[in-house]
Design goal:
Layout (H helix, E strand, L loop, with lengths): L10 H18 L3 E5 L15 H6 L7 E5 L3 E5 L4 H7 L6 E4 L5 H7 L6 E4 L6 H14 L2 E4 L4 H5 L12 E2 L2 H4 L3 H14 L4 E4 L2 H8 L1 E2 L12 E5 L4 E5 L6 H7 L3 E5 L3 H5 L6 E4 L6 H10 L2 E4 L5 H5 L3 H28 L7 H13 L4 E4 L4 E4 L22 E7 L1 E3 L2 E2 L2 E7 L4 H19 L12 H10 L9 E3 L8 E6 L13 E4 L2 E4 L3 E4 L2 E7 L11 E5 L17 H18 L5 H10 L4
Parallel strand pairs: 1-5, 3-4, 5-6, 8-13, 11-12, 13-14
Antiparallel strand pairs: 1-2, 2-3, 7-9, 8-10, 10-11, 15-18, 16-17, 17-20, 18-19, 21-22, 23-26, 24-25, 26-27
Helix pairs in contact: 4-5, 14-15, 16-17
Length: about 600
């Protein structure tokens, strides 16, 4: 099994860590330290050696930051993690702040004392984020000091070592384009822009550009390392030597030179006078410091692999469809099992996690989970990023809702699906809220939109029915998804926060509106879908784009208040269920198929 249920972090962890960190601050003559969640590669999900925020505070969420002073400490988290942060940190030690509305930059400007000296590790923060901190610090009279050694690394005596798992070639049958072709077309664009080099430190960029995968990062098949791409399409790849095999050398060919990651900084020192493209949003400030000191002509711009990586080619889309069909079989088997076991009253959240993972393993193709399953019974379902442990493990409530958000990593695709399931008899309130969420989901599935439209322009469609009832949810509506890569992938998204990247054909994005009643239950309906060229609209004047749904799993009919659905919404739901039955049904055993026929029967 991939998922574990041990208790991570917690208030005692912060209580033990803070005195050690403050001793380091005293030694360095600092008043405080800024602790981001990000590691040297700006990952979302981190290797164990990068979990500095969790070690320092006890908070284990995938987004957040802290400012630790000699006599106070502040933890910043977004709406997904506000309750988790309160549960995992000591209230007498950490003051909670909203990461979006009252983030570290706001804190520096509004709460920091003039003359305060706060250290930061330039390896763990990108220049764009650092610039915002420096602006606020300057306004407040605070001194930000770049540190050559991170005090947390000194205090963390048993810090795990960086992983050294072997790099795995990712074949053309799954990638759809050779590394040489990718490097050549990006190199040509660099040449046309007058750029000689591009520095890449994002593991996702390396995975896509070189057609490689690894096991350095939990739940995401990434390789930690760095690269330099030249305009002629040749490249230098810097990784730990233990990761390199003869098969990898042969796969990459002569145009890619492999080096020990220890010489990456030395190589950058030889860029004097060269025009070097670096992304200031996802590359560490440390890299920029090296290039500036070397005399390079640094050109700040977007990582050139981000948009091509998001625009899935036909082979990747075909792979995503296969992965979701396979995953759909596992989901049907699981939902059938759950419907028969949950009413007996013996299931727990961990039982559910083990079951869905087991059904995915039974496909024979699962490489890993795409994230730890969010398995929430009753009130635990109201935490959007809840992670069950042996301490929090709750029985599956009767006459309540169960929320399961889970996904798998397969060689041909990454899946992510949420289903909210009725256990026993749902209340009228539950059905009302569920149907509002479903209406938003359907609206975002059916929409047609002109080229150039961003995800933020579509976000309100998913929230409208909830707004009409006086409700909302505090997370984005859709995130990009990789092709056997990260379950969260930019640059596109669907959210209230403005996003300036237009949706284009080939982009995969989630569709996941929700509703959360604290101390009650949680609701979310999530499918993955990809952008397509929509069929012409009769009488229309402009070409339109739309979405095609990838996820194949029934939506719980018992939770739907049919009278709230429009004829168009009802048609969409019945057609979706007919497709699920047609594509998944033939691959199921007789009993499960009979269950699926009932679960997808027309309303």
């Amino acid at each position: 099994m991939y998922q574990t249920y041990d208790v991570r972090g917690g208030a005692d962890q912060g209580r033990k860590a803070l005195p050690l960190i403050r001793a380091q601050l005293e030694h360095l003559g600092l008043d405080g330290i800024f602790v981001p969640h990000e590691d040297e590669w700006q990952n979302e999900y981190l290797p164990d050696c990068g979990e500095r925020l969790a070690w320092a505070t006890g908070f284990t969420g995938s987004a957040g930051a802290a400012i630790i002073l000699k006599d106070q400490a502040f933890l910043f988290t977004d709406g997904r993690y506000s309750q988790q942060a309160r549960n995992q940190t000591a209230a007498e030690l950490f003051l909670q702040r909203d990461l979006i509305e009252q983030g570290p930059a706001y804190w520096l400007r509004a709460e920091a004392s003039e003359g305060t000296k706060i250290g930061y590790d330039p390896r763990l923060i990108a220049p764009d984020a650092l610039s915002r901190l420096k602006t606020s610090a300057s306004q407040a009279g605070v001194e930000l000091i770049a540190l050559s050694v991170n005090p947390i690394d000194r205090a963390w005596q048993d810090r795990p070592k960086e992983p050294t798992t072997e790099i795995i070639p990712y074949p053309l049958a799954f990638s759809g384009e050779t590394s040489a072709s990718k490097r050549s077309r990006i190199g040509e664009k660099m040449a046309s822009d007058g750029l000689e080099l591009c520095v890449l430190t994002s593991p996702a960029a390396l995975a896509w550009l070189f057609n490689i995968r690894g096991k350095d990062v939990t739940r995401t098949p990434l390789v930690l390392g760095s690269a330099v791409l030249l305009q002629d399409g040749t490249a230098q790849l810097f990784v730990k030597p233990e990761k390199v095999t003869p098969a990898l050398r042969g796969f990459l060919g002569n145009e890619v030179s492999l080096y020990d990651e220890e010489v990456f900084a030395y190589t950058l020192q030889g860029t004097k006078g060269k025009r070097v493209l670096v992304d200031p949003a996802i590359t560490s400030a440390h890299v920029f410091d090296i290039l500036d000191a070397a005399g390079a002509q640094v050109v700040r711009g977007a990582d050139p692999t981000i948009l091509p990586r998001a625009l899935k080619n036909p082979v990747e889309i075909a792979g995503a469809k296969r992965a979701h069909t396979r995953d759909g079989v596992a989901l049907a088997n699981f939902l059938h099992w759950f419907d028969h076991q949950a009413p007996k009253g013996h299931l727990t959240e961990i039982d559910v996690c083990k079951a869905i993972e087991g059904f995915r393993i039974a496909t024979g193709a699962l490489q890993d989970l795409s994230f730890d399953s969010i398995s929430g019974a009753g009130p635990n379902g109201a935490f959007p990023h809840y992670r069950v442990t042996v301490e929090s493990n709750r029985p599956v409530d009767q006459d309540n809702l169960f929320l399961l958000d889970s996904g798998g990593q397969y060689l041909d695709g990454t899946t992510d699906v949420t289903r909210t399931i009725a256990v026993g008899v749902p209340s009228a309130e539950m059905k009302d809220r569920f149907t509002r969420v479903l209406k938003g989901h359907i609206a975002l599935s059916r929409v047609r939109f002109p080229p150039g439209t961003t995800g933020s322009a579509l976000d309100a469609l998913a929230r409208l029915s909830l707004w009409e009832g006086g409700f909302d949810y505090d997370h984005g509506t859709g995130h990009g998804v990789g092709a056997y890569l990260g379950v969260h992938e930019g640059p596109h998204r669907i959210a209230k926060i403005p996003n300036h990247v237009a949706l284009e054909p080939g982009m995969i994005v989630s569709n996941e509106p929700g509703f959360y009643k604290i101390d009650g239950y949680g609701i979310r309906v999530e499918n993955l879908q990809f952008v397509t060229n929509a069929a012409p609209i009769a009488g229309g004047e402009r070409p339109m784009l739309g979405f095609e749904t990838l996820t194949l799993a029934p939506i719980d009919r018992r939770l739907i208040e049919v009278s709230m659905l429009s004829p168009q919404e009802l048609t969409w739901l019945n057609q979706y269920h007919a497709r699920v039955l047609a594509e998944i049904g033939p691959q199921l055993d007789k009993d499960v198929r009979a269950w699926l026929e009932a679960a997808t029967a027309p309303l």
